[in-house]
Design a protein that fits this description.
Layout: E1 2-3, E2 9-10, E3 14-17, E4 26-32, H1 36-41, E5 55-60, E6 66-75, E7 86-92, H2 95-107, E8 111-112, H3 117-124, H4 130-141, H5 145-155, H6 158-182, H7 193-211, H8 214-222, E9 224-230, H9 236-244, E10 262-268, E11 271-277, H10 287-302, E12 305-310, H11 313-324, E13 330-335, H12 357-372, H13 385-407, H14 412-415, H15 417-430, H16 436-443
Parallel strand pairs: 3-8, 9-11, 9-12, 12-13
Antiparallel strand pairs: 1-2, 3-4, 4-7, 5-6, 6-7, 10-11
Length: 450
């Protein structure tokens, strides 16, 4: 065992309860490290005879007292999640059983794992790269189908593979220059100036395409912000509940009931959406209601789409006009309570029968598609600012090289330093170089036991 640069003890055996606390059918305890099998075996009456084969065993404490009857599975390294020997103990759920088993393991020399330490070891042992490790966290945190799909793709290495391909192209260009520098008198003659410039231009173009996915990635990660707004008591909360299909917001006929924003994440077609019910917009002397209206105004300022609600055509027109003055978002007029009378509004909705809800959802999808283009999540997408920054650095360095090369202002060895910096930025992104500080920030946000 030794301390790394971050003060983290490396080489010891760690354990954690990998399932959420509370009442449940099963609690899973994970143990990983060089001595995982030796230390856990002290507390298992029937040790599994086969690797990756679950065995029903008694779990005992240091005195031999029975703690639980559990399923024990051994995963010998390097063919395990962490790349080390691992043992998983599936005990009965609840607070007490898992706590007693953890206490017994710690008494035998196992250390409680830090947040994300299992995944961190997987990265350090070459089982995952850094982008894949981030995808593990994204998969756990996913609140929409789109986020789940993108996280699965990144966990499977789709984005990593694209970045590695770009890195190889940069290295190929470096080698191209090095050959010309080291062997200028070879029979093939000097490398064509135009060929080098063309390869650099194609690299910049490819990086631009990948960087362009960052805005879509932000929507996938956070959800497009769709705000329900309008005057008090026009059916905003009823529309919110109708879209959700459940009673989430309190609905009354008292103006100003919604005093704060209520937010939830849903899938609207292919798009993940943060749907927000806001306080009614009106002049008021009620201090608490004023605070709610201020919150509504802030949401409108950052919205992607606003559903401007009114219970008459006139109120819809008034709401659309007022809200357009407050936001740059796409504003969709919605006539709520349309079952109470005829309407010429663009979208009529009955929250009682559900009529018109599908049209509202289709309109949201249409507005988001106009803003961002079709949501294409089959190709690699940038989900994190760290990814965008690394690619932006690489793009800037290659562009600087291209400019110098086209103007022939510097010798090839000096101009080529830009290519080395670009390659290093991509290497840092996927974790092929020392990125201990990045690991500290990344895994500090993970669940304990993952």
């Amino acid at each position: 065992m030794f301390l790394n640069d971050s003060g983290l003890l490396v080489g010891d055996t760690i354990a954690a309860v990998a399932t959420p606390p509370g009442r449940g059918a099963i609690a899973l305890i994970r143990v990983s490290g060089k001595e995982a099998c030796t230390l856990v075996r002290r507390h298992i009456v029937r040790w599994p005879n086969e690797n990756r084969h679950a065995t029903l065993s008694d779990v005992v404490d240091h005195n031999g007292a029975l703690l639980d009857r559990a399923l024990v599975t051994v995963f010998l390294g390097p063919q395990s999640f962490t790349g080390e020997d691992m043992v998983e103990i599936g005990v009965h759920g609840g607070e007490v059983v898992s706590a007693l088993v953890m206490a017994a393991l710690i008494r035998s020399g196992v250390r409680g794992a830090l947040p994300g330490e299992f995944t961190r070891r997987a990265v350090l042992n070459g089982k995952l790269d850094l982008v894949q490790a981030e995808a593990v966290g994204d998969l756990i945190d996913a609140q929409s189908q789109a986020m789940h799909t993108v996280a699965i793709q990144q966990l499977n290495g789709k984005l990593s593979q694209r970045v590695l391909e770009l890195r190889e192209r940069i290295i190929e260009l470096e080698a191209f220059l090095a050959y010309d520098i080291d062997f200028p008198e070879e029979d093939d003659g000097p490398i064509s100036h135009g060929v080098v410039l063309n390869k650099a231009s194609k690299l910049v173009y490819t990086l631009d395409q990948l960087l362009a996915t960052a805005s879509t990635g932000e929507v996938v990660r956070k959800g497009a912000l769709v705000v329900i707004a309008g005057a008090p008591n026009v059916g905003k909360s009823s529309l919110f509940n109708a879209i959700l299909g459940m009673e989430r917001a309190i609905v009354t006929n008292i103006p100003g009931t919604t005093r704060d924003a209520i937010e939830t994440v849903i899938d609207v077609g292919p798009w993940p959406v943060r749907l927000v019910d806001t306080a009614g917009l009106r002049a008021t002397h009620d201090i608490v209601e004023q605070l709610g209206i201020e919150v509504s105004t802030r949401y409108l300022g950052s919205a992607n789409v606003v559903l401007a609600c009114g219970d008459t055509d006139e109120k819809v027109e008034e709401a659309v006009a007022n809200i357009k003055a407050m936001t740059s978002a796409s504003v969709i007029g919605v006539r709520t309570k349309a079952d109470s009378g005829p309407s010429e509004a663009s979208i009529r909705v009955s929250v009682v029968t559900g009529d018109g809800i599908s049209i509202v959802l289709e309109s949201i999808v249409g507005a988001l598609s106009v803003q961002h283009g079709p949501l294409l999540i089959d190709a690699p997408i940038l989900l994190r600012e760290r990814h965008r920054y690394a690619l932006d650095v690489a793009r800037g360095e290659i562009e600087a090289f291209r400019l110098l090369w086209s103007q022939e202002r510097l010798p090839a060895p000096v101009a080529a330093t830009h290519l080395r910096i670009a390659a290093h930025a991509l290497e840092e992104m996927i974790g092929t170089v020392d990125v201990e500080d990045i690991l500290d920030r990344l895994f500090g946000t993970f669940c304990v036991g993952k």
